[in-house]
Design goal:
The protein contains 3 helices and no strands. It is mainly α. The protein has a single domain, classed as Helix Hairpins (Orthogonal Bundle). Helix 1 runs antiparallel to helix 2 and helix 2 packs antiparallel against helix 3. It starts with 5 loop residues before the first helix and ends with a helix.
Length: 113
């Protein structure tokens, strides 16, 4: 029987947490009477947070595998796969910042009404 890698265990936990968070956001938004647009933004935010967490887990797994399994003792940011993971995480982080800014604007506009 094959054992799960650290990444697979972390990914499973992240997926479960994400689904729970997504359902909570939806329920809270509906109870609070948030507009459909704000609800969509909250779900998009939760989705992006989940994707960022997964990228961090992938990056951590990559470092862990390099450090322990391959026993090269060298972890390089110049490694092509590591670079891709870092760039992908940066892109998701920027998207998340945009969604958070939009959400903040929407909430401020609602408070003024």
């Amino acid at each position: 029987m094959e054992t799960k890698t650290l990444y697979q265990k972390a990914e499973q936990a992240l997926n479960q947490a994400f689904e729970t968070a997504k359902q909570s956001v939806k329920a809270m938004s509906e109870k609070a009477g948030e507009a459909a647009h704000v609800t969509k933004l909250l779900i998009e935010k939760a989705t992006l947070e989940h994707r960022v967490s997964k990228k961090f887990a992938e990056l951590g797994n990559r470092v862990y595998e390099k450090a322990t399994r391959e026993r090269t003792g060298k972890i390089s940011l110049e490694d092509e796969e590591t670079k891709k993971l870092i760039e992908g995480t940066k892109e998701l982080d920027q998207q998340l910042a945009q969604v958070e800014a939009t959400l903040e604007t929407e909430r401020k506009a609602k408070q003024k009404k």
